[in-house]
Amino acid sequence: QDAACYYSRLAYQAGGQHDPEIVSGLASGLVTQELFRRGDSILDAALAEDSAQGEVLKTRIWSAYKQKHYTKIFPLVDKLQQMQDISLAPFLYAAIGYYQLHRYKECENTCGVMILNHVNSRSVLYLLALAYKEEKKYHLSLLTLDECIGDALSSDADSYFSAKGSIYETLNQNRQAIREYDTAYYLFKNPL
Fold this sequence. Notes:
By secondary structure, the chain is an all-alpha fold. 77% of the residues lie in helices and 0% in strands.
């Protein structure tokens, strides 16, 4: 990491201040080393020159997130959204920031942007479910958690649990075999 930061610094000093990849690379190295002020000053200078540099915006968002400076994230994510540059990490950082600041409606909206733009993940759904819960939208929270669980469990998982049960049976570990069969049944057969 130090070598990468060294070479990024050389490239930056050789005129790379106008190259978003060099700026982001150097700043990322500094942020990784928790040299936030130095990294942020490089990023802020580049953004002052051109505020529409997606990679630089994303790196600045990451730095703010690592420092828990959530309110600095929000206008940067808005800029990315205006540019239609919607990707998981920066928007997830914004949603987490809104959640941490108890701004649940904005958290929901940010998760909604990710879902509508097909950059969601189970983390997004889980955060959305938590925000719904805080807003006392319990039914929506439960539905979203069901979606998380469905995503987390492969449709083939019941076969895996059954196969484990079969192996435990072969080993004459019948109690463990029954546990595995029960798990397969209860997770995938919707008992009761």
